[in-house]
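Quick question, first post here. What does this chain look like in 3D?
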Amino acid sequence: MAAAWSVLERSGFRSLKVRQVLAPAGVSANGFYRRFPSRSHLMIALMEDEAAAVSGRLTARLRQEAEPPRQLYAWVDELVDVAFHPVRLQRARIFLDPVLAEEQPVATDRLGGATTVALADVLRRGRASGHFGAVDEVLTARAVHLLLRGFTFERLAGTLAASRDDTVETVLAMLSDALGVEPPLGPTRTGGAARPVAPAGALPTLSDDTAALAADRAAGTTAPDPETERIVAAAWRVLERSHFRTLKVRQVLAASEVSASLFYRRYPSKGALLVAMIDDENRRAAAHMQARLRPERDVTGRLRAWVEGGLQIVYDDRLARRSRLFLDPVLAAEHPREFERLVAVTIDPGRDLLVAAGMSPQAAGLRARATYHAVRGFLGDRLSGTHDWARADVARTLTALLLPRRPTAPGDG
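> Answer (accepted):
Ran it through. Tokens below.
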């Protein structure tokens, strides 16, 4: 185990091969496979090791607090720290591995979601003591766990510009609105050295030209040439047949009936094709969201419609399969600007509606982003088969977390 952690740390937590572990561990291949039948089993053991460490820290924090509101703060503060601590952030990478999640869905869900149980318990105690209003504690805890996973995903990809304090305040404000209470105040830790914070990657920003191009595409005023459309459509068909697990250029050539020379004139690599597919999905997402919001006349109705529009990808089987492509943290890290553009297409309408409801742009943007990540997490639940929450229950929970009950959220002033 120690050798495996050492190998992962040297590789930046991006690769782990069994042969790399054998020599530092001083064990033979036979000895290794007697304990771990496959690489996936070793990864699960590493997840168990890290989950136990996270659970131990969290339990110690919660025991320091007597009242549920302070325990709520401690839970959020501790879990946000995973995304901002230099070592914990990198170790969290193994919990976001989509291949491992598909190979071992029950184990990865159990280990990755262990902290959810602790939050649900805090919410139940708060309800019993009269501190908190009534919510579905299990589903609310799951939603918050998933949105924090999303923030961790973004920290690893370098696309989250928010500070640690802003992230804590955003999550607390959402929970407090859902529970009908004021947010618990102030850090529970006093004195001592400041916490280490992992450096954030540069946030890809959209230029005015790019934003205008996205608007044109959403309105249908620009379109790719016929050959490009044929190649992208063929790539989607290939991915659908493989359940969105593999994509090979030769398969796309056969499906699109274009020559290799024509393909490579438009797409120098498979990565370039994947970027084009992200762009294609941007256009679809923008058109879908606009159509969903247009019939609603008031801000609250549009915010509810925005949540429902996001959940469409979770509960429409075909859209859910297509969206598998966008759950890959490696692809997100390789193409952060394109991923951020896809995120912005979804988030911006929600942010603008929250601003209209009285929130500052910064607070509104973070709250909309958190909701987006929760939706993405519920998509992962459905794709892995580990959970199948009722759509109406998820919509009600996310709407309660999203809608502000005060004129402004913490950090607005």
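The radius of gyration is 22 Å.
Residues 188-214, 216-222, 407-413 have pLDDT under 50 and may be disordered.
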